[in-house]
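Forwarding these from the shared drive since the link keeps breaking.
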Amino acid sequence: MPSTGDSPLKTVTFFPYGVREIENLWIPLSDGCRLAARVWLPEGAEETPVPAILEYIPYRKRDHTVERDARTHPYFAGHGYACVRVDIRGSGDSEGVLTDEYLPQEQNDGLEVLHWLAQQPWCNGSIGMIGISWGGFNGLQIAARRPPELKAVISLCSMDDRYADDVHYMGGCLLGDNLSWASIMFAYNSCPPDPEIVGEQWREMWLDRLKGSGLWLETWLRHPYRDEYWKHDSICENFSAIACPVMAVSGWADGYSNAVFRLLANLNVPRLGLIGPWSHKYPHMGVPGPAIGFLQEALRWWDKWLKGIETGIMEEFMVRAWMQESVPPTAKYHIRPGRWVAEPEWPSPHIEERIYPLGSCEIASPGQRVPETELTIQSPLSVGLFAGKWCSYSAPPDLPHDQREEDGGSLVFDSAPLTEKLEIFGAPAVELEFSANQPLAMIAIRLSDVAPDDNATRVTYGLLNLTHRNSHETPERLEPGKRYRVRVQLNDIAHSFVAGHHFRISISTSYWPLAWIPPKATRLEFTLAAAR
């Protein structure tokens, strides 16, 4: 059947197979609960069964994701796959009550869904999982349970560590997005199912959700450290549990880009990584652009791992990333200029590590000796107002703006103007020796690209709750006046600094409202010559 593309010219693509859509199909579970599914089937699947692709999320298939689903799943179905979009228990039109993220019940249900799909007359028993955000998480989590039906995963904008690098905490600092995300899920959980699907029981189901879903924010705040609550379903606890191929995808404007590199480095299965300039979006709808033909790329992956067709995708580079070029700072980009770069493995042997000493307000050249200097900073709470959101959802203005306002309340270290282009790819890190005047403190470190006219564009950043300097599981308060050494890793990035520009490291003691502030204003003192 024809599909309307994303172009305003209404370009039409004709698929190899006609597609039949089933508005709702009930999937029965062993405890009597039923999950609601929307299904797209290629013509002839009942006579000649095909592989299935599952998307398993709580975002209401009848309204919130209906437009996105209509762009994605018919494409795969039109190329010979049974596509199934399932509302998680207690969400959308599915029965039950949803009380938190990534519960054991959710994965148990997912295993039953996979088993049920494999038994359908239109499915040949070979299944893949695709999903963005929540669906990217549970694709990996369910893969770690090793269901025999699951042959491959495409995980977008997801995370391997639910505590250290998710929407809740970053470097042990409580994120502002923790509150906004809790509010979003409170709103979802307060919505009723559709009476056209569930019938007269809609009101009873709705009241059960209102009474039973709870205040998730309270749960998250009761776990400020990396305890068993967060370790559950953090696949970094045991990367080897995943035995099927994984494609990991994200964007530099998204909050979940770091996991792509850890998955590539730690999984021991066929794997690919793809990072574009995008925010929290599927890449074929990617903003900032350029968007790509991601459905075509995903089809090559599915054809390889679900149909056994040699598409050549595994003969290409392990990781492909958008090398972003220098641009003036703004809170909204339609397009991020750049180019694609690729590496055959990760970590890459082609990337050179350089160490730049930090001197008095300067970034020295590699190998240069700098005199020992002590500098202090106590940042105003206004530092962070130009940070943008932890995760961009393409709802501008939500990207970081000109960093000069932030730099006024920070310690600033500038390099000399570059005489030639300098490109970085990976996770920069800053090592510091410091003391604090309070037992509780945080640090925010930003790397910026500074143009000759002094416009400063944030390239990447990192946060650390300094009581977590040794462990997220067992924090240790600071002893005021005592010196400590700490390493702060910034977010992975690919960025090209052009000749004539210089790069800047900025250090602050607050980053509000992106991260929650310490209970008391804190002054940090840094001993340079030991910093880099």
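-- next protein --
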Amino acid sequence: MTTPDSTMNPQHTKYCVCTICDIGCQFRAVVQDDRVVRILPHESPALARNICFKGTAAPQIHNHPDRLRVPLKRVGARGSDQWEEISYEQAMDEIAERLSTIVTEHGPESFAVSTSGWNTQTTHGFDRRFMNLLGSPNWISGVSLCAGNTAAVNRLTYGWFPFPDLLNTNCIVLFGHNPRKHSWTPLFNMIEAARDRGATVIVLDPRVSEQAEKADLHLQLRAGTDAAMCLGWLKVILDEGLHDQRFIDDWCVGFDELRARVDEYPLERVEEITGVDRELIAQAARIYANADGAVIPWTPVTDQQISSTSAIRLHSILRAVTGNLDVVGGEMLNGVHPGWRTEADLQLHDVIAPEQRAKQLGYDKHPVYTYRTAEMLRPHMERVWGRRWMDQVMGCHMANPTEVFRAMADGDPYPIRAFFTLGNNTLLSYPNQHQVHRALMNQELIVAHEIFMTPTAMLADYVLPGDVFTERAHIADTWGWGNRLALSEQVVSPPEQASSTFRFWTDLARRMGFAEHFPWDDLEQVLDHRLEPSGRTFEQFASTVLMEQAPPDYRKYRRTGFATPSGKVELRSSILDELGFDPLPYHREGPATSDAFPYRVFTGVREDPFFQTGQRNIGVLRRRSPSPKFFVHPDDASRDGLVDGHWARLETEQGHVVAKVSVRSEMRPGHVRVPHGWWYPETRGSIELAGAFLSSDAVLCSDADEFLDHEQGIPHFKGFPGRLVPCDAPAGMSELTLGG
């Protein structure tokens, strides 16, 4: 039976690409009275299972009563969380005026931006476009620690970031990666489908994770030793002749030098470093090398270690020497969709002066994902991919975050005085949280563009409400990684005073003299421009396409070569050599444990109900995981007096945080796992910055030079020393009272 109201305003559905996490699943949003009321799976059997409980919570997130809807201007001391409501126009006028003054006094490099493509879905490259026109190279993002840096490092070996052909592969190797039904859901479903086809799954993880429990082989390595493990695999593969010698002869350079380096890692040494039996190491290497099509998917673990550059390079080298590059069931060098302009095409990287690019923080010290390396790759990218600048997963032209926060806090090598953060809870998203806090407190202007009041937003001068993915049209393109286009329709109206990132950057640019470079008046015009190479408008695309992908094209390198200086796969990297680094991969030991700090702490692990620092205020999700937890082995808990469900304090030389203990037999003894991104929105007004320092893993990890990967400046999140001691619950905490 229908009510009169429902008859007059019936429900209808449209297609959206979800950005609550970084996967980008396409599903259907049910709308009534300009309000999202429900999320449904896709009708396609191939896509219907790609939905998790974060995605189904979109109505509770997008319609949340605490969502920001009006621009706010700080009226109290920074961080006091005192505001007055102002109009969007006033906010933009004042922001433009204050930013102009800072740039005039300190130079354009004094302006830095941190953003997240996952939360904002896309900026259409307008953030970098604005910064390049202004002359600031200091753009950072969480992708510097997660996928974006992996994309940049992969390009050193073969000029692209490959995408695994999971639909056809016969062997899947997961380095610490643990896709589950409600986390990395499409990847989980593809792995399950591969298992059903008979594919072998090898997991390398200190934990007995959900993937490890089902794996054909589990190598329970010591945290932070991925590079050594890969060198051990290569030792087996090369010694036993399991490599593809013809491909190496025709398409690789540096094989003899690589072999000499690999010989430095006999299996006895690798066993000692990793803690894994040498016979098991050899067995895994043989299975991978002998598979007819094998993949090593990107992992959020290998890209966060003290040997990150080497470990990522070793993954790329394993793909190449076993003949798994750009073949069926291997790792695909897809390129971009031929009918689409990428974000990099709109970013105007040629506009910023070379001397300004050279001021990018990290350019000299940790250059791998900065402009410095991108400049070296330009002619080779253009030769193979037809683009001088290709910003895969937003990670190929970044500043180094640690160097940016040092400049913000201490003015070294020059001061940064204005900081914008869009869809990025900066305070909890990078290592050495106390330094990040000091850096933010030292700014003359902070602007936050958000949908909720985060601890970072509480430190801002202006907080502007953003829109969400159901409130804007988009075409998702996997951030330049693959060549798939997926439709995301606008299904409801945004709040009247909310702005998209397109609107924010366009309005700021026009106020600061760049109007001619921002000619588009609405988002659909931008999408028309991006689709122009295909001869379609967005309206035409939306009326005919839900998802499309260019047909596979294998072994393209036979026509074009690889986008490297040699035109071949560089097992010995000429770019790393020219930059002054070791051109061959190596294992570098992380900080050692001691009697005082006996645990190996690995952080950055996400929990199913949350993505990064988000969703702690969404009751339907938070009730699935009400409190942060430290995961420890029963033997460790018994020795240190730790009781399951009771509070403990985790201490490192950098800082300390608290959480409840979770005793898990699947943990490797001597290790403690710490979930990422914890704060307590329900304590806003009673605990400073809503408990941002109580349980955040970002407090624990040092970014001192000796703890950083040399080439990228990535901190060692996986296996740094710590100790656990029982403690009382933190003062001011009460039972969870979140609704929704």
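The first strand starts at residue 12 and ends at 17. The radius of gyration is 25 Å.

- D.
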